[in-house]
Amino acid sequence: MTARCPLPFPRMRLAAGAAGVLLALTGCGSTEPDQTLSDDPAEVEGGAVGPDVRLDDDVGLQQVQLEYPLDGVHEAGEDARLFMAVTNTGGEPVTLTDISGPDFGGVRVETAEGQGLPLTVDAEDTLYVGAEGPPDVTLLDLGRELRSSQSIPVTFTFGEAGEVTVDVPVSAEGQNPTPPFDFPDDDPDQDPTEDGTSTSSPTT
């Protein structure tokens, strides 16, 4: 299922010093060179804010991050939930077909229909992963210890837009990457209230 929200999203600005994102763009239909925002992607200084990346003119990932561990550390062998939004401003659906990386043993994907990939994002729509209800994505059997602001590379493959590798950080302590994330969910043009205040939140 997908969650509607105003599109396109404004790209979220990383906190000062939060440049620990390595983007390896391959096969994503872009002529731009690979982007490297840090020589050391292992840790994001000043607290992690999930990075925003684009695969092409239509498809993007926003606020990609791992949940903050209750005890402060994800031990090797533990699992970690993944939070993000997948935006599609194009006129055709897109499908997320694979999630992979060297620092975890597999992925568990739970949807309203059952389990497993692919995940489909409808045209001009947004899919919230880890929001209110499915889909939920969990990285299984982490290969190393991870603390707040440390990151691991995760490759997202789309059937239509190619693939992108993102260094995904662990959320900072006190940051709760649950719905509605930090995305604006109010649109004055669609606001039913007279005072311009929206009380709605993304739905699934």
TrEMBL record:
Keywords, A to Z? Signal
Q: Where is this region: Disordered?
A: 167-204
Question: Which InterPro entries is this protein grouped with?
Answer: LpqE-like, PCuAC_sf
**Does the UniProt entry include the keyword Transport?**
no
Presence of keyword Transmembrane? no
What ranges does the record list as Acidic residues composition bias? 183-194
Q: Which domain of life is it from?
A: Bacteria
Q: Which Pfam families match?
A: PCuAC (PF04314)
In the UniProt record, the signal sequence range is: 1-18
Residues annotated as transmembrane: none
What segments bear the compositional bias annotation Polar residues? 195-204
Q: What is this protein called?
A: Copper(I)-binding protein
Specify the species: Geodermatophilus siccatus
